[in-house]
Known about the structure:
The chain folds into 2 domains: 1-98; 105-218, Roll (Mannose-Binding Protein A, Chain A). The chain is built from 5 helices and 10 strands. The protein has a 4-stranded antiparallel beta sheet, covered by helices on one side. The chain has a 4-stranded antiparallel beta sheet with strand order 6-8-9-7, with no helix packed on it. The protein has a two-stranded antiparallel sheet with strand order 1-2. The chain is of the alpha+beta class. A hairpin with a 5-residue loop joins strand 1 (21-24) and strand 2.
Amino acid sequence: MSEEVTYADLKFQDSSKTENIQEFNKFGRKVYITSKTDMEKLKKLQNFKEELQRNVSLQLMHNMNSSEKIRNLSITLQEIATKLCHELYIKKSEHKCKPCPKRWMWHEDSCYLQLTQWETWQKSDEICSNYNASLLKIKNKSVLNFIKLRNLYHYWLGLSPSKDHTSYKKLDETIISSDWFTRNTNDLNDWIYCGYIHDQYVSYTECTDRKNIICEKLANSVKIESILMSEVPEE
């Protein structure tokens, strides 16, 4: 009789207000039945969570787009500053916006130092290293044309020393050369040959001979603030 009363009581309760009804399953363990009210709360929480995740995703996408725009704008500003600085550099070679040290020539993304002092190839290489630079290497047509305009005679090049004496060749051929110096060389003797510029040609002589020096190194970035404080060149 008691079981029937319990069933009747449960049946006529308002299911929307029932809180955690406990029953026993066939194994004798308690089973908690979540009420309809709790289910609605859970559903609202789940919807809130999904909406929050969508908002976070949208915000992240917005931030990524903003970062990309800022990055592109920075690149554009840097390009404009570099072009403007180059115009100022043409008018005044030691302009404060120049991305190269004093006395160094600026071409594209590199700096060049021309030294009229006669040294062996090895000593010349050491001198350039002291400037955090290397002996001149000509690897593209832009640098080639820039160097040709300098009309250089007897300047060491950053070509690897060789045991074989190579006949002279045109400077243009150095662009495709695989002989550019890439390793340290010590104790060069009279039987090792090094390349040097002689106007429009590359010639070879003993590395212990003495030639002039021209060094190169990577230019710094043009500082935008140095452009903003400069006078804009006329058209």
